[in-house]
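Data card: per-record layout.
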Amino acid sequence: MIREEKPSLPSNASAIIPCAMSTREALIQEILNQPEPLLREIRQYVAFLAKQRKSETEGTSPLPAKAWPAGYFEKTAGAFADEPLERPSQLPFQNREDW
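The structure for this 99-residue chain is written out next.
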């Protein structure tokens, strides 16, 4: 009698095989299988998305702390309008030793 073996499923079968899980349940199952460093990154990303969503609903801009200050471009646009830009002449080519 020949015995047929069932093919084994890949480790990411939950991502391949559609099922009746809700998005929340599928995320929880996927998260439970992830290493801690990846979970920290996911947590930061979810916090970023939540902050962005909150600012969109409140009509505010979620500028990071290192962004350009408010009005920066309006204050600097045309700052050199009265000063002509001049390019100095090119310096002579410098010969370097071969390696």
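Known properties of this structure: The radius of gyration is 29 Å. Helices lie at 13-16, 23-32, 36-58, 72-76.

See the next section for split statistics.
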